[in-house]
Amino acid sequence: MAAPLYQAKAEFFRMLGHPTRIRVLELLQAGPTPVRDLLADLDIEPSSLSQQLAVLRRAGIVTAGREGSTVVYALAGGDVADLLRSARRILTVLLAEQGTLLAELRAAD
Questions:
Q1: What SUPFAM superfamilies would the database entry show (predicted)?
Q2: pTM
Q3: How far apart are CA 53 and CA 48, in angstroms?
Q4: Tens-digit pLDDT profile for residues 42-77
Q5: How many other C-beta atoms are found inside a 10 Å radius of the C-beta of residue 20?
């Protein structure tokens, strides 16, 4: 049985485990963004974006505010941006290693 701390960590990473949520977080790294701009960049249905934003909001990693009649979302803190940058670095190394292996396999033919 997993300790509560590890269970909480697993839930956190599961929450991040959706392509739309990852893309939203990447877009929000540029700063607070109105929902209409997120919709334009994501090309998904408003109801789908609303569901994904709700998950991120419940997790406490994004905040929502109003500017007039416009709802604007932002990252709750810089740690999320740091996590995304770390993930990008890890993926870059992994993909580079796969590319090297692929090149070796092709050269062996």
A1: Winged helix' DNA-binding domain
A2: 0.83
A3: 9
A4: 989 999 999 999 999 999 999 999 999 999 999 998
A5: 17
In the block, tokens 């977080």 appear at 25
Tracing tokens 């870059």 back to the chain, one arrives at 92
pLDDT per position as a tens digit, 8-46:
999 999 999 999 999 999 999 999 999 999 999 998 999
The two three-digit tokens of residue 16, written as one number: 């991040």
For residues 75 and 89, is the Cβ–Cβ distance under 8 A?
no
- Residue 95 CA to residue 103 CA, distance in Å, equals 12
The span from the first CA to the last CA of the chain, in angstroms, equals: 48
Structure tokens given for 40: 């334009």
Phi, psi of 43 (to 5 degrees): 55, 50
CA 33/CA 72 separation, integer angstroms: 5
Q: Which two tokens stand for residue 17?
A: 């485990």
